[in-house]
Amino acid sequence: MSEYSSFDYFWGERRRERRERQARREANHQAYLERQRRRAERQAYLERQARREANRAAYFARVTNNVLRFKAQYEGILEDLKRQGLDSFIKNEYDAIQQKIMQINSLLEVDEIEAARDISLEIGQTIHSLIPLACKQKEEQQIQRNKQRVLQEEAERREAEIRLQARQDFIDQMRRNLETDKESNPESITEAIQKLDVLKKKADSMTDADLQEQLISESDKVDGEVADETVRREVIKAIYQSLKKTGFIVNNPQLSGNVVILKAQKPAGQQAEFSVKLDGELSFKFDNYEGQKCRKDIDDVTTLLDECYGVKLSNRRVLWSNPDRIQRGSKENPSGGNAQSTNR
Q1: Candidates 3.90.1150, 1.10.3470, 3.40.50, 3.40.462; correct CATH number of 232-343?
Q2: What share of the chain is helix, strand, coil (3-state, %, to 5)?
Q3: Regarding predicted confidence, which is higher, 324 or 52?
Q4: Which one of 18, 84, 210, 267 is at 20 to 30 Å from 127 when CA atoms are compared?
Q5: 76 contacts: CB under 8 Å, gap ≥ 6
Q6: How do residues 59-79 score in pLDDT, each as one tens digit?
Q7: What torsion, rounded to 10 degrees, do the Cα atoms 74, 80, 82, 84 define?
């Protein structure tokens, strides 16, 4: 081999080794990128899994709380039956529910939450009939020990008392519900409470259908008036903001009878007064203006009510008082011009 061929062979080997090292580095880099990609995918999977587990844990926590809450109610009912001595009259039903409550406890201990919930639902479908059933069984045993006539009269009397008490309890519950909403519409709800008190006194002389009809009617009426009051409050807020945006200094709303009155004034003395009834009738008066100069304020306020707050005026009637006065404070019109409008 010549000197030149040896030299070429040497450098050829060096180039081959460099290419191999480059190939190994490239392969190692690709392997590193693949490991990074897999690591990222694994991390994303673990995060999704963690979110699923968190949602599942929250779901089971809610179900567990509900099961425990209802279980406490069921145990309270059973305790009431036992305290009244009624458990012996419905021993089979009483023992069956106790057994199901024990099953709920066992299932909760091993985190079988949904199975415990299903048993709780089964109990809920039957437990509320235990007291009437126990009373019935007791009365039937009394009938067997005493004369038929006396026991029948006693059963009828007890049934009437239970029915009356149930009616009165229901009316009392409605009354308590109204008391909690009293601030939303004090007058209407106070009137409804008074009517419920009258119905409670007459409950024993009314049929179920008549009592139910009157209770539903009164409930619907109150619901409607509360809804109307809610709408009226939104309208008052819209009027308040519209007057402020047009330069008025607005006083706090005042309730006069069944009408909410909102008064406002400008530093120059112009005045505005809005009245809103529960049935949706709205009237306003702009006073202490010269001629029909109040028209601009009226237009500004009503435009804001419509465009910004969605309060649209329909069936509008405008009444002008002294619109042609030449000078404010004249003998013919010492208070200036004013305009009144009514909207229904």
Answers
A1: 3.90.1150
A2: 70, 10, 15
A3: 52
A4: 210
A5: none
A6: 878 989 999 999 999 999 899
A7: -160
